[in-house]
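Hello forum,

I keep getting stuck at the same step: I have a sequence, I want structure tokens, and every attempt I make locally crashes halfway through. Rather than fight my setup again tonight, could one of you with a working pipeline run this one for me? It's a single chain of 215 residues.
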Amino acid sequence: MPARILIVDDHRVVIEGIKVVLRNYPEFEVVGEALDGYQAVKQVRSLRPDIVIMDICMPHLSGIEATYQIKRLAPEIRIIIFTMYSDKEYVTELLKVGISGYVLKERCLSELILAINAARQGGTYFNAISPILSIHMQELEKARSDKNGFERLSMREREVLKLLGDGKSTKEIATQLYISPKTVESHKYNIMEKLDVRTIAGLTKIAIKKKLTQL
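Reply #2:
Ran it on my machine without issues. Output:
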């Protein structure tokens, strides 16, 4: 059974161009088209396509908002962004929604076919935005590492982190918590290991970020 495709673009010439190319592939069937995001959501409700080829900048309802609505309506539908824009803000926002592909219009239409094939098989296609995707994944990993590291801190370690963020010395922390300076140094070493931070300034930033202390 061919994959059912809905094409969404505010330029009819783009829609017709995609349709012409897809006619050469019997495994694909264009079941509908839409000229804006509002029409796209309406068509998805009635046609239930397998794949949506979505532009970003369109009247009435943008491709980004339409993608959000479609994914809420039918999470199983694969959405491929086909646009002239490669802005990091667009890319990261759409990646959060769970798109299956991102193809730039400046590329050959054969690349769109590759993206459709990948989506049809349950995969993804992001070759056109691989540098942005790489940065995005690094940022996610760093955020995940920071979060997980902080959550691994014991209550005592959080107390020490707070006091370090307040600018307290090892001796002052030991006095305030009724522990030895050696124990404070041990806690400080463990905190640095868990948060992957090597300086007091770095620990202070995290303490402020986590609202343990204030400037």
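Residues 152-209 form a domain with the Arc Repressor Mutant, subunit A fold (CATH 1.10.10.10). If your local run keeps crashing, start a new thread with the error log.
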